[in-house]
Design a protein that fits this description.
Structural class: mainly alpha
Number of helices: 9
Strand content: under 5%
Helix content: over 70%
Number of strands: 0
Distance between the termini: 29 Å
Largest sheet: none
């Protein structure tokens, strides 16, 4: 089989997934706009269902793109920013969709799919890198364990951040007397800010556990690759910063009684650190973890 052809098919699948997620975003946004205007109807509920169905289709297509890229590269497809990003999109979409099976979080669909479209746009333009052999430090089974757990954790943090953002909006609305609240079918359909906070907290706990294992597995891999468990490389440092921020969030909520706005803001700050680590540290900083494959 022509591996170059498989690489081309992978890229086609990535673009196709981007279009599908873009369509899902449009349907979710339509639902959001109509509900916000106070004109919810059976049509808007149908729009929400179509958005979710398209998200499932996009998920299947982006998973196929990741698999094709892996077969074309003859390795796990996690060695540069293009591969990181398409895998991250697959996992974030999967986390969102499977959490939605557990609890209805389709009201976050516009935010999640919008984010996925942006990442895929970057993956197909400035982050695109042709298939290359792995650098020696990455030739280890730990690349499968460490990177997979890290991206899974990122997926849960992303959903948690979306829930926290909606919690802030809902809390601000709930602070007003009921007779002074502007009619908004979208916010009326959302859970209360308290329930949004509890759901966000649950999702972030899962992400935090996964991120803890990311640190542990990364340290083990570092010892095998470079002969030391920790070296304060910029990527290692930012991975630790993310862990500390989320540990602070969980600690403050559990022991200091942080609830509501303060907890939500801290959760969003944590995800901002995740985005900085993924989009800036991976591409602009030099170090042992400079695997972006750019330039």
């Amino acid at each position: 089989m022509d591996l170059a052809q498989l690489e081309e098919w992978s890229m086609t699948a990535v673009v196709t997934a981007g279009i599908i997620f873009g369509l899902a975003f449009i349907f979710y946004a339509y639902d959001f706009a109509v509900r916000t205007a106070g004109r919810a109807s059976a049509r808007t509920h149908k729009s929400l269902r179509i958005g979710t169905s398209l998200s499932w289709l996009g998920f299947v297509v982006i998973v196929a793109a990741v698999v094709l890229r892996g077969v074309a590269a003859q390795r796990v497809p996690w060695s540069n920013m293009h591969e990181f990003s398409i895998t991250a999109v697959a996992i974030i979409a999967g986390v969102y969709l499977f959490v939605n099976l557990w609890r209805d979080v389709s009201f976050t669909g516009m935010f999640v799919t919008g984010f996925l479209v942006i990442v895929l746009l970057l993956a197909t333009t400035i982050w695109y890198t042709a298939v290359k052999p792995l650098m020696p430090a990455l030739e280890s089974a730990w690349i499968v364990i460490h990177v997979l757990v890290a991206i899974l954790g990122t997926g849960f943090f992303a959903v948690g951040a979306a829930l926290s953002a909606l919690q802030l909006v809902q809390a601000r609305r709930e602070a007003k007397p009921k007779d002074q609240r502007r009619k908004n079918a979208y916010l009326d359909a959302l859970p209360s800010s308290e329930k949004l906070e509890q759901l966000s907290f649950t999702v972030i706990i899962i992400g935090f556990v996964l991120w803890t294992f990311t640190l542990i597995f990364g340290a083990i891999w570092a010892q095998k690759a470079w002969g030391r468990y920790w070296g304060w490389d910029v990527k290692e440092t930012w991975t630790l910063i993310i862990w500390v921020v989320y540990a602070g969030y969980l600690h403050a909520r559990a022991t200091r009684g942080w609830r509501g706005t303060r907890a939500a803001v801290l959760a969003i700050i944590g995800f901002a650190c995740v985005l900085f680590n993924f989009g800036v540290v991976n591409t602009l900083f030099k170090g042992l973890h400079a695997y972006a494959g750019l330039g």
